[in-house]
Amino acid sequence: MSTAPTVYHALGPLTQAGPVTVWVVVLVFVFFECALIIGMFLPGDTLLLAAGVVLAQGDHEASAWTLGVVATGVAVAGNQVGYLIGRYAGTRMLARRNGRILNRANLARASAFFDRWGFWAIVVARWVPWVRTLAPMIAGAARMDNRRYILANAVGAVCWVPTLIMLGYYGAGLLDVVPWLKDAAALVAIAFFVVGTGYGLFRYRQEMRRPIDDTPATPADGEPEDEDQEEGLRDTG
């Protein structure tokens, strides 16, 4: 028996997901990952690659390119929401006592990364999963100039979203000469996404059950020590 029918059957309806389904999943997840703290626990990179692979199954090249453009816009909007959350709420309430991800140490590391690189921190953060979600909030809490932030946000999104979607699409296309391997690639991509999402939601629930770390705020938590430091942070980048 050929391997191809077996793998194809195992993939089931997931490999037959139409462009509309792929679009809805990608846009919702990209927004969550860029705007809300739950995004730290979602497999954004894997999702974008998987979307490209699944669209390649039906030769939806135009849809893949269009999705890349629209999802880039959603990523920019999501990060802008994260910026506003940080600007008006700060980051003090994020840290959890004994949290594995949401803890003071990780907030301090993300803040130090932002303080050191400024504008480029927002661009590069797109490629660092948990920093990707924290960076906008830290930038907002630090009162980074909004115009500079929007520019960095847009540059990062353009470099991140279309790159991964089209890498998945054209990477899968290279396997056309071995159909069963192309199906297997789709199965692996979807499996990583499904398992990663389930595990991520589990970790998120575990973190949210921990009490908020109410240690007195420090500058690393997004609160400038004095007016001079606050003024400097507004011009970061």
Automatic annotation (TrEMBL):
Domain of life from the UniProt record: Bacteria
Region described as Disordered: 212-237
Localisation: Cell membrane
Major location category of this protein: membrane
Family label: Belongs to the DedA family.
Residue stretches making up the VTT domain: 42-169
Membrane-crossing residue ranges in chain numbering: 20-42, 62-86, 150-172, 184-202
Keyword terms of this UniProt record: Cell membrane, Membrane, Transmembrane, Transmembrane helix
Membrane topology summary: Multi-pass membrane protein
A UniProt-annotated Pfam family: VTT_dom
Protein's name in the database: DedA family protein
Coiled coil: none
